[in-house]
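Problem: given the chain below (201 residues), write out its structure.
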Amino acid sequence: MVSLKRPALALAAVAYALLAACNDMLPTPADPPPLQGAAIGGDFTLTAEDGQPVSFSDFDGKYRTIYFGYAFCPDACPTDNQRAMAGLKLFEREFPQRGAMVQPLFVSIDPARDTPEVLREFTDNFHPRLIGMTGPDEVLKGVVKDYAGTYSQVPTSNADGYLMDHPLITYLMGPDGKPIAFLPTDQGPEAVAAELEKWVH
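Solution.
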């Protein structure tokens, strides 16, 4: 009997070790979203790059990325949007179904210069699904304030006459419209894709 029990005990030990190893590889519960409970966000209606009204709530049920900038921005806006949208493309390639759950949005805070045509040309540079939109200054100021930001004109001596001081943030909002996280565009597309992978399910 002893000779029979020893192999059984050895097999049990091996099975236990394998189970422990498998448990180590199981995903652990995600931490709460870093912006959970933050007073950021809200519905709004602006004019899309096709000239039609568009509301934030039109995309309820989808994750949304949103960036406040302007097409004439000389550096930050093109860089931030390139990295954010390149990160989204990486995420879409790795996880097509989850990537399709993300709707990227670009809100221009420079309505005087960012016509629908200008916005369409700007957004097409970064992602085929990126939607540009803008609206009256008095409406935009309220929208940006709801997202815990401000913006203002900065006069310059160049031909354009001014630049815009604005938040350098790409927000990730959930299907319920609530804030989840800031996308780390300063760390590059791979970091953006990793952040999307963490929260978009």
